[in-house]
Specification:
This protein has eleven helices and twelve strands. It is an alpha/beta fold and 329 residues long. The longest helix has 13 residues. The chain binds S-adenosylmethionine and iron/sulfur cluster (SF4).
């Protein structure tokens, strides 16, 4: 088995695989309301998604996170999870979801070998939820969270993107919600992916240090060396098991320890969230039926071009035209 290493000596053991660009929400920081989704022929089939996952596990990747778009709107997702979770070398199959479909799918996903779930939740207020996601589905998401707990998932993590004047007054409410259900929660700095019209990213930017300061007015945060293999820095709070995490692409850049690559649903291998370098794996998979060697060799070679770091800066200029749903967030 080859161990994937990039040109800077970083070992790559984690793949984020996007299974769809489609979504039943239109979160203001992620998509425009009139987003156009990809034609079907451009999207990897379920079989191609499995082949992609297999190429990476055969190269030493041992953790795969399925994402999107909204992974749970992809027809056949439970069967795909079942197939991927059985790949040799894979230690962990995880999934990031908006939670809207979890009521019906949580038990099936647990049975299909998904070991952990992250659920996005930026607000607990119905009207605000409608304006942030442009959809009226808060109660569906809350039911989905309860279903995931009921299905036995351990260490469920909530993800909240924090924006000034939009939801930064709900940080403590979100923490109390997480603590009441013994969930972890991570606060994310908004990234400049795709052009949006709903708000100024520069003006609404809320740094992890700002969020931390708000929390510390109410709760002491005890720093912790725990990691889930991702970029989050974790803290504990007295009197509960919940961990509070921060993903801070601006204020605490985590590129030095980057261990991951992404594959979009079009089959583009993205070497860095914040750069445009990519390799067309779909072409290679379709051009070499029944033979993954050319795909694997191309992945090994591409890793040599993985950039050292992202170059996001605080401005309203579009820094990457690719929206998060196209990136595989
Ligand atoms: N639909 C699923 C969900 O919302 O969890 C999975 C895909 S979504 C693109 C993955 C994560 O990216 C979500 O937690 C979402 O909040 C986050 N996200 C989307 N756009 C973002 C942006 N511009 N900056 C920071 N996080 C973003
Ligand atoms: Fe959909 Fe997730 Fe993007 Fe929201 S963040 S629009 S739920 S893909």
């Amino acid at each position: 088995m080859t161990n994937l290493t990039d040109g800077f000596g970083r070992s790559i053991n984690y793949l984020r695989l996007s299974v769809t660009d489609r979504c039943d929400f239109r979160c203001v920081y992620c998509m425009s309301e009139d987003v156009r989704f990809l034609p079907k022929a451009q999207v990897l089939t379920l079989e191609e998604l499995l082949l992609t996952a297999r190429s990476f596990t055969e190269l030493g990747v041992n953790k795969i996170r399925l994402t999107g778009g909204e992974p749970l709107v992809r027809p056949g997702i439970v069967d795909l999870c079942h197939e991927i979770s059985r790949l040799e070398n894979l230690q962990e199959l995880t999934l990031t979801t908006n939670g809207s479909q979890l009521s019906g799918l949580a038990h099936g996903l647990a049975g299909a070998g998904v070991s952990r779930i992250n659920i996005s939740l930026d607000t607990l207020q119905e009207t605000r939820f409608d304006s942030l996601t442009r959809r009226n589905k808060l109660s569906q998401v809350l039911d989905g969270i309860d279903s995931a707990i009921d299905a036995g998932f351990k260490r469920i993590k909530l993800n909240a993107v924090v924006m000034k004047q939009r939801n930064d007054d709900e940080i403590i409410d979100l923490i109390n919600f997480a603590r009441s259900r013994e969930l972890d929660i991570t606060f994310i700095e908004e990234m400049p992916l795709g052009e949006i019209s709903s708000h100024s990213r520069r003006e609404s930017f809320c740094s992890s240090d700002d969020v931390q300061a708000i929390i510390q007015q109410q709760f002491p945060l005890l720093s912790s060396a725990e990691t889930t293999g991702g970029p989050a820095r974790y803290f504990r709070m007295p009197g509960g098991s919940s961990r509070i995490g921060f993903i801070s692409p601006y204020s605490h850049k985590f590129c030095d320890s980057c261990n991951r690559v992404r594959v979009t649903v079009e089959g583009h291998l993205l070497l860095c969230l914040g750069n445009e370098h990519s390799l067309d794996l779909r072409y290679l998979i379709r051009a070499n039926p029944g033979n993954l060697e050319p795909v694997k060799n191309a992945i090994i070679k591409a890793l040599g071009n993985k950039p050292l770091d992202h170059q996001f800066s605080h401005s309203d200029e579009v820094q990457l035209v690719r929206f998060m749903n196209m990136t595989g967030g």
